[in-house]
Prior knowledge:
alpha/beta, Dihydrodipicolinate Reductase, domain 2, 7-stranded mixed beta sheet, globular, binds (2R,3S,4s,5R,6S)-2,3,4,5,6-pentahydroxycyclohexanone
Amino acid sequence: MTTNLRVAVVGAGRMGADHITRLHSRIHGAEVAAVVDVDLARAQAAIEGMEGAVALDSADEAFALGDINAVLIATPGFLHEEILYQALERDLPILCEKPLTPDATSAWKIVEAEQRLGHKRIQVGFMRRYDAEYARLGQWIQGGELGELLMLHCAHRNPDTPPGFTNEMLITDSVVHEFDVIRFLTGEEITSVQVRLGKATRHAPQGQHDPQHVLIETTSGVLADVEIYGNARFGYEVSTVASFEDGIVSIGADSGPYLRRAGRWGGQITPSFVERFGPAYDVEVQAWVDAAQRGEVGGPTAWDGYATAACCEAGLEAQKSGNKVKVQLNAKPNLYN
Length: 337
Ligand code: ISE
């Protein structure tokens, strides 16, 4: 395919709107053809100034246009499943924001539906894989020059959580990123998850126990601990310290420019994931478009969506019980090898 991908973006909330701007202004080989949102005014606002794009309030209408040839799904996770099936039925390239679906059973059904097509069509929006520092850490792990990776210490801190963000979502919406990136960095599956609840902040909304300490183990025994802190107030931070046999690597601490002025020194903290991972989202969406133009999927697949959903399921059980819970995974289909 040499013409632009005509993309229907479903969901014009925070992430959807960000992707719409990105597709319109920075991504080559694609254009926004339609924006779908139940809030039609929000869809209309998102396409302002975009010639040729239409705002609609249902995905059916977008598919009925007939000239849509790719779909970017950015609705809340519990709405992904139906749109995924609609797009798979039409054999369209899909970029689906994480999570693929909220639970392992429905994610596995999506994996099965894609297998019936006989080729991959779904890329899942795990943007950390496209972050320059994570990529560099991955090279150190795979390259072996620092010896074996032993442990990962991860901090995932948000300034606050949006209305309706539940205790469970600290795992399914936030720690899901660590599940994916740990699998990506180590090239291994996660075997168990444990969640410990300690002293909680008074700034957490009712029903949320915040922060939580999540312990993750991979097949070779790499241990990762995650501080998931949803209401940390100071700003956004996703950082990791990796302990190797022959060195320690730190990534993600905001670095420079540092200003020294009037007897003080300091720098800036990124306010949210939109800024912290802005460049990674650009690379991610461009990689999706480029692969789609070749009829391929270049990034995290539906299998990754399913495997992380299985980790989330174990995480939710661990959150309730405090026990170390095994991750149950079906055998990996050949399509994803
Ligand atoms: C949000 O949905 C994201 O995907 C962000 O990357 C993550 O840091 C945040 O915790 C999630 O709620």
